Amino acid sequence: MEKKMKHSVPDVMGEALNLVRKSDVAGATAVIREALAGEQARSRSGLPEAWPGRPPEGVLAPRRPLGEVLRALRARPAMPPSAPPELEPAHDFGERLLKRVYHGPAGSLGYRLYMPADAERRDLALVLMLHGCTQNPEDFALGTQMNSLADEFGLIVAYPRQPRRANASGCWNWFDPRHQGRGSGEPARLAGLAQTLANEFGVGRERIFAAGLSAGGAMAEVLAGTYPDVFAAIGVHSGLPYQSAVDVPSAFAAMKGAAARESAPPVAGGRRCRKIIIHGLADTTVHPANGGRILDQAERGERLKRTDVDWQTEAGRISRTVLENAEGRPLIEHWQVEGGGHAWFGGDPRGSYTQAVGLDASRVMVRFFLCL
Predict the structure, then answer these.
(1) More confident residue, 224 or 59
(2) For 299-341, what is each residue's pLDDT tens digit?
(3) CB 100 within 8 Å of CB 130
(4) Based on the domain organization, do 121 and 237 belong to the same domain?
(5) What is the pTM (predicted TM-score) of this model?
(6) How far apart are CA 27 and CA 96, in angstroms?
(7) How many domains does the chain have?
(8) Who's near 40: CB < 8 A, 6+ residues apart?
């Protein structure tokens, strides 16, 4: 049975802000968490015996979905009296997933690093994978199965960890102006990590990518707006547009589908990131309109060729919109999945926030990144 919000958005935010004024940050957080908490939705999907044309790589025959768990977005990143303990790794990867720490001018960042066994003989690419709220690098690596694709395609995959002292639920602070600009905060640390790894392993800028889920997807969008000279392409799964929120109330509104500001993201040095956007049409945590707005921003001010293709499944449609430049190079892909909730599509069901809906999000993203 679906759980409904007990109060309207203004009521919830008003109650939370009143508690903040009384210095009751924990109480305010609890109010917002309760309002945002969703159901553990389950949906089934399948492919018919015959498709209308061959589907692209990454559109898969289905398996039994485990569903999704809709969790809370942590409210404003206030430092608690004592930071909550970090979650223990959900899966033991042995020695293949290295534990490292990046140190840079904007601060330090712990991360896990995966390299293919034959890395020395490969033309490598680099992917930063940004986990969602309440997740950790180990859980995200398990759920997305990006390490398997790393072996197949020659990828170095870095999984940065958002420490609980920075955000009690482990969310990247995409909605905080302190982390929306170039040269400081989380974007500077993530871009610094990418540049350091690229220098270490000899990866050119045209093969540096970032992808994320939910808050991680929103932070990937921040990287596209602030460091397009570092990242060639990004993947936004169930995320939000750059600067769609600048505080807790606007973050809450944006997640529920309120229109973002109309100004287009800045472009550093005249560069733009290529983008692949994936969103489920049944996402009740981050409204799917957010994916459409990222697409709309990309279309403004440029003459791009647009192609729309749909594939029918037993559960609903999977649709893809592609925007190409004059040379025929795809600059934007926007995937929408009927029945898809707030979860990474495909992957390993042992990881949190995964859902089988007939689409392998990791493979689709890698294909787009590498222009395959």
Answers:
(1) 224
(2) 776 788 999 999 887 767 899 999 998 888 899 999 999 999 9
(3) no
(4) yes
(5) 0.78
(6) 41
(7) 2
(8) 67, 68, 69, 70
